Amino acid sequence: MAKRSSIYILSVFVPIWTFLICSFCKELSLIRKCRNIDSSYTSLSQRVKEQYDSNRRRNYFPEVKLSRNSYEDYTLNYRRQNDYGHVYPRENATILMLVRNSELEGALDSMRSLEDRFNNKYHYDWTFLNDVPFDEDFIEATTAMASGKTQYALIPSENWNRPQWINETLFEERLRAMEDEGVLYGGSKSYRNMCRFNSGFFFRQTILDNYDYYFRVEPNVEYYCDFPYDPFRIMRLKDKKYGFVISLYEYEETIPTLWHTIEEYLEANEGAILSKEDSAYAFLTDSGLVGKHYPIVEASSDYNLCHFWSNFEIGDLNFFRSDEYKNFFETLDAKGGFYYERWGDAPVHSIGVSLLLRPDEIIHFDELGYFHSPFGTCPASYAVRLDQRCRCRSNDESVIDIAPHSCLMRWWKNGSGKFFLKEK
Fold first, then answer.
1. Catalytic residue among 222, 313, 341, 361
2. Residue 239 and residue 421: Cα distance in Å, rounded?
3. For residue 64, what pLDDT is reported?
4. Residues 168 and 26 in one domain
5. pLDDT for residue 233
6. Which of 60, 102, 218, 394 has the lowest CB atom count within 10 Å?
7. Which pLDDT belongs to residue 297?
8. Does 47 map to a domain?
9. Are 244 and 369 within one domain?
10. What is the torsional sign of CA 238, 243, 244, 247?
């Protein structure tokens, strides 16, 4: 009886198991075939994509105009591949660094970055300024790092130190008050000397007398991309007087009375300088909506606090040497705001060039990638980043270009604009 039951069970379940095993094998075979097909199509798609990568990314028509303001016809043509042995003409310009002996490592980092990205082709002179003599270690190391000539100058004490007419008692009181309030560099005396020097005395240094242009460089900065052109050449050919890469808002607590002084200056010089309509005055005073953003700070004066970040600036020394700019600086300096408050050279330069130059004499170098902690700028165009070997991402948190705390879009609106068509 048990034997007959076993035979019956086997006769029922063996076909079922056989059917299930066959079905599983068929499914497994089908899965393998599908995977093989997927793999084949994936491989084929990858080959097709790679085949046209060069067309999609790099082989642009020569006349294509990207979103940039300082256009040069042959930026995207891989000139660097044929650079060997090429001699690049130079402008009458120098790279300028105000630096301490103790900042040697940061100075070398900045030099290495700029040499690799730009100056190894042009070999522009490096000019170093200090309020104390440079030591031998600094001179030896920076000379070795530079591809061009290096020169070193001691700033005269009368250009660096506090003027004798500053009320020392009031100065010390204001210094302590700003330090107690937590104002950035509010308690620093040397920082105030530096801001005043950069605002009104750097261009008076005799070592710069024979130059027309300067490129300001600070320690511990990085240049993200190869320069697609010589910015000094662009300045001369396009009659630009001042160039920048980043614009942002100033801390109002450092300049509480600066704009009041500017208003007095404008009233006293009406008719002697450009009118508000002909200058970039609107860039300094527009507080309306730009894109999605109003100014992130509500200023207590008509000044919206926008300024060009002067740790990167390329300028025409003859503009700063002009009577108009020197009169502008001396009007501000006489108020003592560099010491009683903490007026920075960035808002002073920015207000000066905005009032004394036409908007088309100021250039935004939007192809030049740059970083100075904590902010940076990176070309928005993917093609430009490829061509210029950029090591940055335009959507990185540090990239400020179109962030709410940037004034760049306000410059596009009220300054020289943002151009998308090739210039004639």
1. 313
2. 19
3. 46
4. no
5. 97
6. 102
7. 80
8. no
9. yes
10. negative
Does one domain contain both 345 and 206?
Answer: yes
Determine the longest span between alpha carbons in the chain, in angstroms. 125
What lies within 8 Å, CB to CB, of 283 at 6+ separation is 306, 354, 359, 407, 410, 411, 414, 415
> Total domain count for the chain?
2
| CA neighbor of 315 nearest in space, from 375, 245, 250 | 245
Question: Which residues are bridge partners to 125 per DSSP?
Answer: 94
Q: How far apart are CA 113 and CA 91, in angstroms?
A: 21
In a domain, 65, yes or no: no
Task: Give the structural domain span for 31.
Answer: 1-39
Handedness of CA 52, 56, 59, 61 (dihedral sign): positive
Q: By the 8 A CB rule, do 51 and 57 touch?
A: no
Task: Specify if 154 maps to a domain.
Answer: yes
Residue 174, number of CB atoms within 10 A of its CB: 17
Q: Determine the distance from the C-alpha atom of residue 182 to the mean position of all C-alpha atoms in its chain, rounded to a whole number.
A: 27
Nearest in space to 124 (alpha carbons), one of 50, 212, 20: 212
Pair of tokens at residue 212 = 């027309």
List the structure tokens of 276: 């508000």
Write down the pLDDT at residue 398. Answer: 95
Rounded CA separation 193/178 (Å): 16
Let me know whether 261 and 365 are in one domain.
yes
Cα–Cα dist 152/412, whole Å: 38
Q: Is the separation of the CB atoms in 97 and 129 below 8 Å?
A: yes
User: Which residues contact residue 376 at a Cβ distance below 8 angstroms, ignoring those fewer than 6 apart?
Assistant: 222, 224, 246, 369, 370, 392, 396, 398, 399, 400
Determine if the pTM surpasses 0.90: no
- Cβ–Cβ < 8 Å for 229, 159: no
- Domain shared by 292 and 388, yes or no: yes
Residue 59: predicted pLDDT: 45
Q: Are residues 196 and 300 in the same domain?
A: yes
Q: Is residue 309 situated within a structural domain?
A: yes
Give yes or no: residues 28 and 88 share one domain: no
140 noted as active-site residue: no
- Whether 133 and 30 map to the same domain: the answer is no
Cα–Cα dist 375/393, whole Å? 13
| CATH code, domain with 155 | 3.90.550.10
Q: Across the 424 residues of the chain, what is the mean pLDDT of every consecutive 10-residue run? A: 55 61 64 62 58 47 48 46 69 98 98 98 97 98 97 98 97 96 94 98 98 98 97 97 96 96 96 95 93 82 96 98 98 97 97 97 95 95 93 93 92 80 45
First to last CA, the chain: 105
